[in-house]
Amino acid sequence: MLAAIGTGAQAAAIRVNQVGFAPQAAKQAVITDNAATNFEVVTADTGKTVYTGKLSAPAVWKPSLETARLADFSALTAPGDYRIKLDGKTVSDRFTIRAWPYGDLNAAAIKAYYMNRASIALTPQYAGIYARPAGHMDDKVLVHVSAASQQRPEGSVIASGKGWYDAGDYNKYIVNSGISTYTLLAALEHFPGYFAKQNLNIPESGDGLPDLLNEALWNLDWMLTMQDPQDGGVYHKLTNKSFDGMEMPDQVKATPRYVVQKSTAAALDFAATMATASRVLKAYDQQRPGLSARMLAAAESAWNWAQANPGATFRNPADIHTGEYGDQKLQDEFAWAAAELYISTGKDSYYRAIKAEQLPATTPNWSDVGGLAWMSLAQHRAHLTPAADQKLIASRIDSLAASLTANWKDSAYRVPMQEQDFVWGSSAVALNQSMMLLQGYRLNGKADYLSAAQAGLDYVLGRNATGYSFVTGIGARPALHPHHRPSEADKIEAPVPGFLVGGPQPGRQDEKDCPVHYVNKLPATAYLDHVCSYASNEIAINWNAPLVYVSAALDQLTVNKTTTGASMEPKFELATLARQEELLQFDSFSNDTALALGMKVIELARAAGKSVAVNVTQDGTMLFYHGMPGTNADNANWIRRKSNLVNRTGHSSFYTHTEVKNAGGDYDALPGLDMREFAAHGGAFPIIIKGKGRIGTLTVSGLPGWEDHAMAVAALKAHLKIDANI
Predict the structure, then answer these.
(1) 60, 77, 97 — which closes off a domain?
(2) Per-residue pLDDT for 488 more than 80?
(3) Is residue 55, in this structure, part of any structural domain at all?
(4) DSSP class of residue 483?
(5) Rounded to an integer, what distance in angstroms lies between the CA atom of residue 173 and that of residue 366?
(6) How far apart are alpha carbons 5 and 598 in whole angstroms?
(7) Residue 678 included in any domain
(8) Domain stop point among 97, 126, 145
(9) b/e for 541-556, b at 16 or more Cβ within 10 A?
(10) What is the dihedral of CA 257, 258, 264, 268, to 10 degrees?
C-alpha cells in the first residue's frame, strides 16, 4: 500500500466538491486562511475566466479553528470543467458542471456492496482487478450457547450464507444491515426512474429487476436466514469469536462461525426492513414469486417476538469479541418497525404502536432509527389511513429540516455539521443529515433545504477541513488507505472504489495501535488516512447507504435549467401533486360513483369547449368509458398507457412526468419500462379509498398532458366537494 498522506497543512487552501455540480445546484467553495477578497472561476483546460465573485467576510469555524471565507458561484450554470482561482495563481481541484453529475459516484457506491459480498467469488467479469475467490460460505454456522433454544440447542448447524461483510471486518450484523438495506430500498422506492437506468455489471444484471434491488436482495436473502422459524426471533449477528486478520476472505484461518443471541433490536430492525422490502418486491412477484408475502409474514413474526421480549438488549457474551451494536434504548426501533408495518399492512394498530406524539425526528444512525419512521410516513402520506396524523408527520419532517438548515446558514463552512456531529462515522452523519433535508424538500419544496442537502455531499467530496474526498476512488484527493481487509490484503495499490470512509472524529480510539500519528486532533481534522485507523478510516455498509440515497436524490431533484422552460407547460411542484393525491380520496367507491365521476369530466369538458375521452377503471375492470366527438382509438391507447403507469408507480401519471422532467430526464424514454405500454404524460389519477389505498384510475385524454391532469383533478374536487386550492 502507499504511504499515508498527511492532512491539515498539506491540504489545498481551496476546499471544493471534487466531483462537481448540477447546473441549478448551489455551488460553494471554502477558502481557508487566505488574504484574498475576490475569486475567479476558470475553465480547467484553458484557464479562461468565466465567472468572478467576491468572497464572504471571514469567519472562524469552531470544529477546525480555521478562518474561512465562502466563494459562491451558484450563478454559474454553463456545463464544463472548471477550477477556482485566487490571486491570479492559486487554483482548486478540477470539478465539473453538468446534468446528472453523480451518476458514476452513485454506481460506484452501490457496486461497493457487491465488492463486499460474502459467500461468493468475485470474478474478473464483474470485479475487474479486484476479483477474489469466495470466502465465508456460512453454510455450516453453529448456534452459540447464547442463542440456543429447545428446537436449536447449542452447537446446532444452520445455513446462513450470502449477505455483506459489515465493514472492514468479515462479520455480519442484523442491526447494521437493517438501516443499510432500508436506506437502499428507500432510494429505490423514492426515485425508481433513476435506478431503472443503471447497469452495474453484477451477476444479476438484466434479470428484470433494478440492479440496486438485486444488490439489496443479496443481503435480504441472508437476513431471512437469521430468523428462527420456530418463534420469529432474530439472531443479533453472525460472527467469529474474534476478528479475522488482515487477510483476503478466502485466506483467513478457518474458525467456527456462530449466530449469537436473539435480541429485541435485531427483531425490530429486521421487521422494519422486511416490511419495507415487501412493498418494493410486490412489483416483482414474477421474478421472485411469493417473496413479498414471505417478507411481510417474517416481519410480523419478528414484531410479535419483540412484543413478547421487549427487553432483550444485546451485550457480547464473554467469549465473543467482535462488533457489538449493543443498543440499550429501543423506543425508536419499536416506532420504526411499527411505522413500516403500518404502511405495508394498513393496520391502525401498528400506527398506534408508533406512539407518534412521543417520537422525535432525528438524523438517523444505527442506534437511532426514529427518523426513518418519519421518512417513510412522509413518503406514503397520500395512502395512509385516517388514523395517521398528517400534520404531525409534516411538522416533524419540516422541523428537523429547518433546524439543520439553520445550522447550515450559521456555519462558516456552510455545512449543517456541528462540533458534536464529529463522532464515529462523521462522514455518514453529514449524508444522513442531507437525506433528512431532502425529505423536507420533497415535502414542501423549500429551496434552502435542497441547498443544505447539497452541502452535505460537498462536504464528503472535498469541502471539508482535511481537503480529502472521503470516497475511495472518487475525486482529486480520495482516501487511499481505508481500514478494509480486502483493500489492504489484495496487494493492489488503489483501494476498492466507492466506499465512504468514516471521517474525522476526535476520540481517536485507534491511536495506540497506529504506527503513525494524527497530524490534527480537532473535531473536524482528527482524521488519518492509514489502514490502522479504524476510528476514522474504516468503511461500513450503513455509511455507504446514505451516499447512495443522497447522490441519486440530488441528481434527480436538482433541476437542469438547460432542459426545462422551453415548453408551454406551467411549472408544478411535486409537493403540490402529492398533496392532490393526499386530499382527493374516497370513503367508498361503486359503479355509480364511477358513472358520476366520468360524467363530471364530460360536463367540465363541454363547459370548456374541449373534446376528451375519459375512462374509469376499478381493480382492472372498466366501469366507465366515453369518447367525445373528435376522439379516436389513439385516445384509448393513451388512456391505457397512462393508467398502466399509475398502477406501476402509485402516483398520478403527471406526478411521474413532472418528477422526470424537473430532473432533466426524458419522460418519453423511461429506462426499464416499455413505452408502448406506459406513458408519462398527465391525465391518469389514482382512485384511492381512505385506509385501503389505490383501487383504480380516472384517466382523461385529448388535451396536453397537464390539461388532462387538471381536468381529472377538477372532476375529483367537484365530486368530492373539496374546495382546497390544489
Answers:
(1) 97
(2) yes
(3) yes
(4) B
(5) 11
(6) 69
(7) yes
(8) 97
(9) bbbbbbbbbbbbbbbb
(10) 40
Rounded Cα gap, residues 320 and 325, in angstroms: 13
Report DSSP state, residue 132.
B
Q: Give the global pTM.
A: 0.80
User: Hey, what's the cell of 554?
Assistant: 440530488
Per-residue pLDDT of 228-279, as tens digits, reads 999 999 999 999 999 999 999 999 999 999 999 999 999 999 999 999 999 9
- The least confident of 233-237, 574-578, 694-698 is 574-578
Question: Which residues, 6 or more positions from 187, have their beta carbon under 8 angstroms from its beta carbon?
Answer: 195, 212, 548, 549, 552, 553
Q: Tell me whether strands 172-173 and 235-239 are parallel, antiparallel or unpaired.
A: antiparallel
- Return the percent helix, strand and coil in the chain, to nearest 5: 40, 15, 45
244/112 Cα distance (integer angstroms): 20
Write out the E strands in 567-620: 613-618
For residue 688, what is the domain's CATH number?
3.30.450.150
Q: Which residues touch 499 (CB under 8 Å, ≥6 apart)?
A: 112, 471, 472, 482, 484, 487, 539, 544
Q: Is 619 left (phi over 0), alpha (psi -120 to 50) or beta?
A: left
Q: Which residue is associated with the grid cell 408502448?
A: 676
Domain tally for the chain?
A: 2
Which residue in the block uniquely carries the three cell numbers 398532458?
705
CA torsion through residues 57, 62, 66, 71, sign: negative
Please give the residue range of the domain that contains residue 582. Answer: 566-720
Annotate 666-693 with three-state secondary structure: CCCCCCCCCCCCCCCCCCEEEEEECCCE
Give tens-digit pLDDT for 600-659: 999 998 888 788 999 999 999 999 999 988 777 778 889 999 999 999 999 999 999 999
* 164 belongs to a structural domain: no
Looking up residue 87, the CATH number of its domain turns out to be 2.60.40.10
Catalytic residue annotation: 169, 483, 529, 538
The verdict on residue 270 lying in a domain is no
Residues 523/149, Cβ–Cβ less than 8 Å:
no
**Residue 397 grid coordinates:** 419532517
AA identity, residue 151 = Q
Determine the Cα–Cα distance for residues 143 and 135; give it in Å rounded to an integer. Answer: 20
C-alpha 521/C-alpha 517 separation (Å) is 10
